[in-house]
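Annex B. Sample input.
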Amino acid sequence: MTIKRTLLLLALVVGAHVVLAQESTRPPDNVWSLRECIDYALAHNLDIRRSQLAYEQSAIDRRQAILSRFPTANAFSSYGYNWGRGLDPVTNQFVSSQRNSYTSVGASSDVILFNGFRIQNTIKQARKENEASQEDLQRAKNDVTLNVISLFVNVVFNKELVNNAQYQLASSQQQLERTRKLVAAGSLPKADELNLEAQVATNEVNLINQENALNLSLLELQQALQLPASGDFDVDVPELQPEDLVLEQTRAEIFNIARSTMPEIRSSHLRIESSYYGVKAARGNLFPRLSASGSINSNYSSSSATRFVPDGTFQVVETGYFVQGSNMPVYGYEPVGSFRDIYGFRDQIKDNLYKSVSVTLSIPIFNGLNARSAMQRAMIANEQARINAQETENFLRQTVETSYNNALAAAKAFTASTRQVAAREEAYRMAKQRFDIGAANYVDYQVAENELFQARTELARAKYEFIFRKKVLDFYLGKDLEF
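Annex B, continued. Sample output.
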């Protein structure tokens, strides 16, 4: 088997494993409960993944800020050649050679002793930003959870409307069959049969519309879960019943609890603290900066590796001439020996070792107002963070007030719809009895049936509207969102 075919087979196996791993997180029968929808959305939502990455990045920034207080350390090494007349880096003398190799090694370290507490305040700022990012991640999870619950409740609501439409269609079909028999027997006019046929067709259209609405709501839930619409998908309808229609807390009490528990409020307050430390860190640039540094380095040169080694004897050589009187040469003695490569790398590195330690004080006098401008920008950022926090709190208060009013209105609508359905069911029962014995015409019967269906639809709408609005209030109260 060729390498190309082997790689292709490996890719197919890995791809199949990934697909199976993703499929394993889905319910085997493709019937999803609310908890399964929420868990899957939290694991696959892109906004949550984006917030998770932002949180991880802030954690890196925090770690980097903490490490900035430690000394820096760097090592270096260089190796090269030169040709011709050049400067020996060891002896600083000019040498003439066809080729000379050289090596430099060393290390250096720097540490900030004082910079106006900029490092400490930067660490505190990064810590607050990290905590705020964590709250942003929780907020993203809350938003996804609320959205999934809303879409899930909408699916359940449309399922109930489909059931109502099916009930109405079945009722009208039964009535049509009975009317056809009475028309054939001559007990009822042909017009009643035709009217019922038209009503059955209307109910069929209504059922189709409700089924389309249900399919659309299922599609919206699938899209929120990042699931392809091509697969089978359905939800497990729980027993959803309206809870106590009395709202125990006032809107002010709910807002006060939400203000202390909602992650977006905590995030906005943490960013105020972060920007406050940002101002203090920027102010540190106005103070003198004290730093210390140290270094150690050494050199090696091949031109210094060869040295003259005397053998203990001397020879007579001319050292010059007398200038005055005569040209008589002057003789002297010089040692006899040879040049050898005895000054090696280790010895040169040891002998040429150079160490230094320094302390530097930098006093800002004028730098184009960069430091002061940075501090002013940090102060503006702090004010913007305060405005954002106030805006977030106002938005939360408005959301809670709107949710409270919606829940209160839904409770009243549910109570009224319950009484309306009871009255419409009794009216329909009496109209059907009269129509069956011929005491009422078709129009009265049909009006009663349509009004009953409409009342049941309004009751279902009010029921699920209240259930969802009550769950939203429970969410702001910090309660469990399970049904």
